Amino acid sequence: MTKRQGPNSRQAVDGRLRTRVRSLPLGLVAIVFLILLAGCTLPASPDQFGTDREYGDLGEYSPEDTFTFDEEATTELTEAELEQAKYRAMARIEVVRELRFEHDVELEVITREEYREQRGESGTASPFVNEFWRGTFVVDGETDANQELDALYGASVQGYYTDDRIVIVTDPANDGVRIDRDTLVHELVHALQDQHFGLAREGETLDERRAELGLIEGEANYVPELYDERCGEQWQCLAATVPTDGNGSTPAADDSTGDAAEADADTDADADADADTSEINPGLFLSIYAPYATGPEFVASLHERGGWDAVDAAYDDRPTSTAQLIDPERYPDDEPVTVDVPDRSDAAWEPITVGDEGDEPRTDTVGEATLFATLWANGVIDRPLTAGAPEHSPYNYSAPETSGWTGDTFQVYQQAAGDEDTEAQNQSQEQHQTHDQHAFVWKLTWDTPADAATFADAYRTLLATHGATLEDSDSSAPGEQQTIHHIPDSDPFAGGYAVSVSDDTVAIVGAPSTGALESVHDTVATPTPESTALAASPPALAVGDTDPYSSPVSSSS
Predict the structure, then answer these.
(1) Per residue in 406-436, pLDDT tens?
(2) The pLDDT of residue 472
(3) What is the pTM of this model?
(4) How far apart are CA 307 and CA 421, in angstroms?
(5) CA 274 – CA 207 distance, rounded (Å)
(6) In angstroms, rounded to a whole number, what is the distance separating the alpha carbons of residues 149 and 142?
(7) Are 185 and 224 spatial neighbours (Cβ–Cβ below 8 Å)?
(8) Whose CB among 276, 291, 339, 356 lies 3.0–4.6 Å from 409's, allowing a Cys bridge?
(9) HEC assignment per residue over 519-546
(10) CA distances for 275 relative to 124, 173, 284, 486, 492, angstroms
(11) What is the predicted pLDDT for the residue at 74?
């Protein structure tokens, strides 16, 4: 097996509920604090373990070891006891995973204050990132996306793996170190993955990096499930969960390398255990949580198909879309389609390009998981998250509105420098100053024309939840069904939107006003001034109606 290496990677994500965005069930907030923070590293060279040995044979430690601290539900381990728990867990992971640790893993303990000093804060998001999340109706045009990312995290990381070591974050008031079984096993699985396969993520788009993370985090959550099954009758184990005085663990964001696709921030962060549900951005969280929710079922499917050999092989042929995580039968043959977005803007607009690499437009891929997240968060998908969830996943990310996805490309435009006419038009429209200089073109392909029409209708319903009026419903090309919508200035997603369907393709254009749509993408027909604005019908579920979601959600990952 070829070991893949890459730069260290640690990330963060965020969210605060915004206008007309659906509230999360209480259990979802609990899950925020139980997801385990994982990092990517290049392995160092601590003590080597022999490779010619039985699984679980770590010298003086074995899977059958028992210790006095196993009897305590809220154990605070001494340094020596923490070392005993670590080596025993490593021995047991080898037995469960049928893979040997190549060398030791350092275990470090730091205070929460030290951790806060290390992680720092995110800077301001780029215009591309802000428009990406605005066009997908996850973060509104009045809010910086990185601030939303930071808001999802607060002050409660239990531990993480990085640089060939596990770091346990503890509070100075404790006499010892508190660590629960799943945290320790999860992070040790990351160490095992790193030693054999590497943890660098190489995807070029947000969706591809989510998919790779689904494999990595999926295994790190699936192995503890198998480990837990042996606790009690076969093994004495640490407590499965440990009270944390409001301090839990949080998910890592996707690997954002450089400026390639910074739709997620590339920093560490923690979650506020006291956060009210109204402060959680459900669309952003569900997008970020997708690898953790869908990954275990994906890895379990591989394991059931071909044992651990199939899981090992997946690291050389990693999943390329969250659609493959959601429906493991699509892996590995059903790869996403490349979707081209030709530049059809006039002189008033120009695509945002990739760094200093010339005129290549910067693009990204939203993917099926994030499509589901935004439609659910905005009330378009009307069912509990847990309805129909697979055996190894807490949530079901599959829905008729999104399951036919085969590929998409999101491209952002900026107002051309010195274009006074467009600037004056925007000012006369009194658009929100945080996004009146930017627009987007988003093109999606689907399995069938029916799938394309279903998603287009869902996006139109999403527009309706934000008070959109129908400005025009003409067609600009033969066989193309197009509607033009206007969201009023009173809504933080204000602007003009064009939605067109042609065969198995949906094209969405967003601009500060309906009058600017044609300038951004010239296939859009300009609405006639005489057209009567028709109010779009809101979905059956009123915004903020949480009755269908009052069932408790499992708080385990």
Answers:
(1) 999 999 999 987 654 544 444 434 333 445 7
(2) 78
(3) 0.81
(4) 63
(5) 30
(6) 14
(7) yes
(8) 339
(9) HHCCCCCCCCCCCCCEECCCCCCCCCCC
(10) 23, 23, 15, 34, 23
(11) 60
